Amino acid sequence: MVIQDIQTGRISLPLRHPFKTALRTVDAVEDVVVRVIADTGETGYGEAPPTAVITGDTLGSIECAVRDFIRPALLGMEIENLDGIMKKLHGCILKNTSAKAAVDMAVYDLYGKRLGAPVYQLLGGARKRVETDLTISVNPIEEMVADALEAVGRGYRILKIKVGKEGRGDVERIAAIRSAVGPDILLRVDANQGWNARQSVSIISAMEDKGLDIELVEQPVKAHDIEGMKYITRRVQTPILADESVFSPADAVEIIRQRAADFINIKLMKTGGIHEALKICDVAEIYGVECMIGCMLESRLSVAAAAHLAAGRSVITRADLDGPSLCSVDPYEGGPVFDEAAISMTGDPGIGVGNLPCAEWR
Fold first, then answer.
1. 112: part of which helix (H) or strand (E)?
2. Residue 231: enclosing H or E segment and its boundaries?
3. Domain 121-344, what fold?
4. 316-320 and 337-339 as β-strands: parallel, antiparallel, unpaired?
5. C-alpha–C-alpha distance, residues 330 and 328, integer Å
6. How far apart are CA 181 and CA 179, in angstroms?
């Protein structure tokens, strides 16, 4: 099975509600999709969101990276030569991790189809079911409480609350949500780099003093502020999750070496795909550090690839794979089944998702 062509297209899927964080507001999934076509006629699919505020990638830069750099490097390569493909993929252009991730997952999709097995089994087959949280966007407190109650009514037992815009006012947000949903719902707090180190300690300590029982706080400070995150981690009881600070296996090693965070958040759009994400899993296993698997604003196509990784590796103990649940429509067929909080793996070979709503391929 040889790579005969690599093409890009675009998809647009509306969200149930506007997605609001400390960094941005988005109304729809507007992503680049990729298909890798083999000489056998088999096709593998991938997806990349333009998350410029985090990865630096835009729609145009993703398409350019795939068309002008990645495609020429990979044409003619054997799908069975997975390591060789990944070496060329990550060596043909610097950064552009979202473009690499889309091609990576399309190659893994073909690789699984070639072997007649779902990708999660090829990655270790740790479990067949994954439970995800649901994100509650930054809004006025009353709206956030209503959104949290709606999520619980849909069956979600874990909520990720976006904060980071109002400093100590965020404590009031979390307190109101905790009061509304009760003690049995897990609450994760994501500041999206919205606080500084001293402010973080003050806010997290206030949540602890109020007994809000927060499972973890995600990326409280700027991505580059490793010293600040270490300062926080050493001064609060609530576990700290490093997200934007970790793109590569080397980043993970540094975070763990400095004990700057308790957990690592893996996202395929930061790592450049499954292949490099597996290296972070290996690092985390060596050091005994648990990982979360997350996603950007992605549809079920690429979130399915992340779900395969989560189901494949036991070091991934938490999932934030709510992209499909945030979309108001799901046009795809096959692959993992997303039923609100429950993600169930199937026997479909590869990643398994098809029927892309893309009118034009280039």
1. helix 97-115
2. helix 226-233
3. TIM Barrel (3.20.20)
4. unpaired
5. 7
6. 6
Give residue limits of the domains in the chain: 3-116, 121-344
Token pair listed for 86: 């990944």
Distance of alpha carbon 99 from the chain centroid: 14
Closest CA to 103 of 124, 123, 80, 75: 75
Residue 311 pLDDT: 98
Task: Please state the residue numbers annotated as binding site.
Answer: 24, 135, 160, 190, 218, 243, 295, 297, 320, 322
Q: Which CATH superfamily is domain 3-116 in?
A: Enolase-like, N-terminal domain (3.30.390.10)
CB within 8 A of 198, min separation 6: which ones? 231
Catalytic sites, residue numbers: 162, 267
> What 8-state DSSP symbol labels residue 67?
I
Residue among 267, 191, 263 nearest 233 (CA) = 263
- Equal CATH topology for 3-116 and 121-344: no
Q: Which pairing describes strands 337-339 and 342-344: parallel, antiparallel, or unpaired? A: antiparallel
* Residue list for the binding site for substrate: 24, 135, 160, 295, 297, 320, 322
Phi-psi region of 277 (alpha: psi -120 to 50; beta: other; left: phi over 0): alpha
| pTM score over 0.85 | yes
pLDDT in tens, 9-19: 999 999 988 88
How far is residue 91's CA from residue 97's CA, in Å, rounded to a whole number?
12
Q: Vertex 122, ends 121 and 127: CA angle to 5°?
A: 30
